[in-house]
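Why does residue order matter? Because the sequence determines the fold. Keep that principle in mind as you read this record.
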Amino acid sequence: TRQPDAYYRPHVKGILPIPRRIFPQVGNTAEEKTSPAYLAATAPDPSERTLNAPKPEDPSTRRFVEWKSKISEHRRRNLRESLMELRERKTKTDNRLGARTAAKQRERARLLSAPTPAHEKFTVASVLQSSLPSRNGLQDPDREARIERKKANFAAHVERRKAERQNALHTLYMNARDFIVTEERLKEAVEKAFDPHSKQFDNDHRRGLNIWNLGYPVTVKKLLERANKGETGRTVERMSGFGGVMDERMKRIGEELTGGKT
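Structure:
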């Protein structure tokens, strides 16, 4: 017999453009674009002035005007018919895709809930029933105990945060008595801190009441005595002299940075 010819599909050159979405998936756009109001606004009919306009006397001009009116009517009719046909085609396409998707979902649900076929049961390797994967997920015998432990840890964390918040609020309340909230109190604090008669900052012969006052400078004799003292003597001097002042200053700086009492 004669050998049949191979089917040849001719090659189509070029790439088809992506079709424009005329009816976007926002609201009921298909109904709006096929409504009489939209069609009247998009392709309005000739106005009364145009219809009642006098006809040109020149035959060629009259034929040209009639041709333009005819073409305009064709454009309006084509737009209306195309929108109606596109809407009908879109409705059919959406219904067909929806039915296909629903059928696939039903088939998938049926396959997931179907029991294991008999040929798979008889041909599968010998595996313990406890080792087979369960449809309900992995076994977790300690789940309840772990959940209770996590709840207890969370409750302890909440109580700790609550205690810290209460402590911070109490510290804020205790320090609120010294807050400067008015201009009068600000003026009083400035006058008290820089008043020359309050002995906050004294001269070099006597240490003032303010902690930032260094007082009189250290003499050479004091430096020699400090070098000749032992470790115990220097420790006592540090706690009772300038070292104590430095400790108090660091304590004040810590309170200013943290906002609480140390």
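The first helix runs from residue 29 to 33.
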